């Protein structure tokens, strides 16, 4: 008889264990839909709660609505007994009804600021009871508050999209205002900072906004802290190796300069045969006169041709560039206003740096200011065209996620392949022109950090930003 009891008891243990394992497996699948890790954070739990309450047609906002004198539990210092009391009191809707904010529920049951599968399995019954309590309270008050996570309205999408396209187009002509100071040292330092900031915003936007949107990781209006931390580590690695490279190059350049100014070189120069120098100078003067005369006519012809080609390439390339920018902005605004603004901010930072440089190239190539501005206006038309195409595709198809993927690749390419080497060349040129290498490195590093931090703050606090 005792053996039979033991066998039955063991069978029950096996059954319960198997049942719990199956339950935890489904709970883990649920967690993965709202988190990129094996645990669920507060934002993810709130998104899960919002989805559940949206399905039943209502959402309770505010911290709590106590009924019939039921004490409202404090979020901190919870215990198992207190949590169970909270659950039983909420379930006793015949006498007391409380509609709790999901944040309070999370604070009562969280361990290390997260829910694992076992905790979430225990909390889900309370969530169901709380949703039912909220509906009861809403039916009594006659107020039905429905939380919808719909996309922006058509008017908002077109309004914001066209508005930012106008802003980007106006910024592209900002170089005209800075034309009088383009040859100054201050302008070159400003341009270095703007290019660096553009690199920071483009890389951060690609890693923290566009790629997550393409992978549908922002479907619940927020990224997991783990993803943000890892992508921030990627950006930190870029900053570290940029700083290391600049430091090494500065040391090498300093070493070369010291060798050139050494006493040994000066002594060699002073011991050179004066007759040989005179002979070489005569050859140089005579040779130069011939070359200059023949080369001047040739250069004049080539200069017109080269300038014409460069200007054409810049205008066409700028037009295509603005079309892609507009396409990305339009698709982003059709998905989410905050995503659209984040992408637009990155575009603006990049446009400021690039367009000032383009204006400078066009002016130095002999093009008049009016003609340069006209070319920029022609290129701006492609930005509006891109916005329109992006909005239409985003609202009528599911192509916006593919657009985000393409834009993410373009952002990384432009920032790391195009603009980052440009930063290096600008720094080397500035150092050769007697600028402090420490100042130049700090200036560029500050621009990178500022650009990254702007996008990081948006990505980290996207759940708290309301538009």
TrEMBL record:
Among the GO molecular function terms of this UniProt record, one is: zinc ion transmembrane transporter activity
> Where is this protein localized, as stated in its record?
Membrane
Q: What are the UniProt keywords, alphabetically?
A: Membrane, Signal, Transmembrane, Transmembrane helix
For biological process, the GO terms are: intracellular monoatomic cation homeostasis; zinc ion import across plasma membrane
The signal peptide stretch is 1-18
Residues spanning the membrane:
157-178, 190-215, 227-244, 373-393, 399-417, 438-462
Gene Ontology CC: plasma membrane
The membrane topology of this protein is: Multi-pass membrane protein
Entry's family note = Belongs to the ZIP transporter (TC 2.A.5) family.
Query: This chain belongs to which protein, by name?
Result: Uncharacterized protein
